[in-house]
Amino acid sequence: MTVPILHDRVLLRPADLKPSRSGYSILGTFNPGVACYRDDIILLVRVAEAPLVEKTDALVSPRVDWRSGALEWVVDTFDPEGVDASDPRILRLPNGRVRLRYISHLRLVRLDGEDLSITEVSIEQDLMPSQSWEEFGIEDARITQIEDTYYITYVAISRQMGVATALMTTKDFRTFQRLGIIFPTENKDVVFLPERWKGHFVAYHRPVSNYWIDAPSIETSLSPDGLHWGNHRFLFGPREGEWDSIRIGAGPPPLRIRDGWLLIYHGVSPATQVSPVGRYCVGAVMLDEDDPTRLIARSKLPLICPERTYEREGFASDVLFPTGAIYDKEVEELMLFNGCADEVVSVLRLSVDSILEYLGEANLQ
Q1: Which end of the chain has fewer CB atoms at under 10 Å, N or C?
Q2: 346: part of which helix (H) or strand (E)?
Q3: Do the domain assignments include residue 365?
Q4: Number of other residues whose CB lies within 10 A of the CB of residue 120
C-alpha cells in the first residue's frame, strides 16, 4: 500500500535534449533540483553523457582536464583485462579504483508555472564541470531558497576529492557563483532548511563511511554562513529488514506544512536481479517546527515505490529518486519532482493529508 497518486507525468526524456558537444550521446536526464522563480519553475536537470565509441564493448571514461590552462574534455580508454564492467554506471579497475562511464552536467530547464510545459532549455557554462574537483562531472542538484538567494548544493566528483558536495548560489538563474566544497568525500544528498534557525543555516546530509561501519544515515549540521559546518548530529538511519535498510538520503529541502517540517527522503532495499542497484522508494519524516534537528514522526511504509513503467525500466531499473518539491498551500497538495530509473524526470502530485495519515501511524525506530 502506498499513498494515492493524484497525477503523474514524465516531463523530460533523453531524446528531448541534444548533447552538449559532438561525439557524445545522452544516457539520462534525471534528478532535477527545483525552484520557483517569478512565474516559472526552474529545473536544474542532471544530464549524463557518454562518449560515442566505434566498438560497443570499448571501456572508456570521460573527464575534464584543466592542467594545460584551458579546459579540455578527455576520454580515457582501459584494457578490459581485469576490469569489472558489470555495473552500467562504473568501471572497477584491477587496482580497485572506480571510474565513471559517463560525465554529468546540469542543464537549466524552465517550465511554465501553470501547465508545466517547457519554455526554455539552456546550456549554461556555469553549470558545466570546470574545476579540478569536478573532474568527473557535477550531479544531483538540490535548490533551497533562503531570503532572496537560491543555494544550490550539488555532487562534485574527482580523483582529488572523491564524491563530495559543493555549493553555488544565484539570485536570477542566469549567473551562478561557485563557493567550493562544503562537505568532503563521501557525502551526498545535502539540502538546507529554507530559513535560518537560531541564526544558523541548517543542513541535512548523508556521510558514508569508507569502512561501512554503519549504513549511511541522515545527519544535521549547523553553519553561521553556509560554508563552514559543524555541530553534526544524527537524525535517522536505515532500518534493518525494512524497505530502507541499505541507505537513505534526503530528497527535496524540508517543506513547512501545518504540523511542522516535512522532509521527503529516499530509501534503498538490497539489490536483486530485477533491481541491480537496489530498489529506491520514497518515505517521509516530520521534524519539530521549533527544532528542525529533532525527528518527531517517520513513515513505517514507503509513500511511493517504483511502479510505473518509466520508474521500473531504464538505465538503472527500479529507481524513484525525489529531488524537488513544490507545496501548494491552497489545495494542500505537493508536486514531487523525481529522477526515474536514472533516465527521465517525472512529477507526481500527492495530497498532503495522505502523507500525514502515513505519518500518523509512524514510529521512530
Answers
A1: N
A2: strand 344-351
A3: no
A4: 11
CB atoms within 10 A of CB 43: 29
**CATH code, 341:** 2.115.10.20
Task: Report the alpha-carbon distance of residue 170 to residue 152 in Å, rounded.
Answer: 8
Q: Are 114 and 103 a contacting pair, CB within 8 Å?
A: no
CA-nearest of 229, 281, 221 to 251 is: 281
Phi/psi for 169 (5° steps) reads: -130, 160
Q: Which domain holds residue 253?
A: 7-360
> Tens of pLDDT along 63-102?
999 887 788 999 999 999 999 998 889 999 999 999 999 9
Sign of the CA dihedral with 183 first, then 140, 350, and 42 last:
positive
Using DSSP's 3-state secondary structure scheme, residue 350 falls into: strand
Taking the alpha carbons of 187, 153, 251, 270 in that order, is the dihedral positive or negative?
negative
Cβ neighbours for 37, distance < 8 A, ≥ 6 positions apart = 150, 172, 173
Which residue has 527522503 as its cell numbers?
Answer: 265
Q: Which three cell numbers stand for residue 5?
A: 497518486
Instruction: Report residue 346: phi and psi, to 5°.
Output: -125, 165
